[in-house]
Amino acid sequence: MAYQMWTMRVLVLAVLLCGGIPWGAVCAPAANPMDVATMQAIAKSIGWSVKSSDPCDGTWAGLQRDLGSFPVLPTPLQFLRNIDLGSNSFYGLHHDFFAGLPSLETIVLDNNDLKVSSIEQADVVPCSRLRSFSANNASLHDHFPNFFGNVTLFPDLEGLSLARNHLWGVVHTGFGANSKISYLDIGGQTQNDDEKIDGHMDLFIPGMVNLVEAHLDHNGFSGLMPDATQLVNLRFFDASYNDLCGVPKFLGGTVVDLNGNPRVGGGCYLCLVICTHTRYQYYLNR
Length: 286
Known about the structure:
By secondary structure, the chain is mainly beta. It has helices at 33-45, 121-124; strands at 7-9, 16-18, 21-23, 25-27, 63-65, 69-70, 82-84, 92-93, 106-108, 132-134, 141-143, 159-161, 166-170, 183-185, 197-199, 213-215, 220-224, 236-238, 243-246, 255-257, 263-264, 271-274, 280-283. The strands form six sheets. A nine-stranded parallel sheet has the order 1-7-9-10-12-14-16-18-20, with no helix packed on it. Strand 2 and strand 3 form a beta hairpin.
């Protein structure tokens, strides 16, 4: 049997060939015609004997109705590279889920109500071949996952999309340094003023040498504007509605949005702010 590198979307969560019978596939309550056709094609290609043309009528052995959370696979899916689970109604993500996807390169979890308290480094590390991780508007409640910027852990990561979640905390110095990340979207986190993604852009953006497009808007970044004059591939940079200061430094041809940063264009003054959690923030006049 010739195994194929399946790209699956919406209807199927995972198909594991176990004695020729798919295990752990999940059926959405209302399948659209394209999803049905995809399931029928998969069944035909692997010789899956089914009793009807409708994968959601309860007669397909091994296919379950949508249970709301991602299952843990008993055996890794060695051949699955791309999976799109966006715009569903999943609300859970087991910490062992990624362990069953060692060849995963692209995953889309957008527009789900996951309410995940954390995405741990140890959970995702088995997917060391990741090229794109997208979980926009997925109700993630967590500190910003800095480990995605570690080129040793994810040497091939090109796209990271975590916009419109409930993430907070500091983006570490050197995040994404010398990585392949070309697309970064962490904008529009829906936290209050005390819990936002923050840090200093000038301590990580200049090291993201392959960056093409960055969305960092509506967060709590402060301090100096990053010097992006060495980022020769950068074409779009949105850092609107933060608390940046200093003179913008970008190569010609880069589209830049810095609205909502009233101190951009001037110097950064020296001040000391005592915050609610006795944190100290310094802005140096330079």
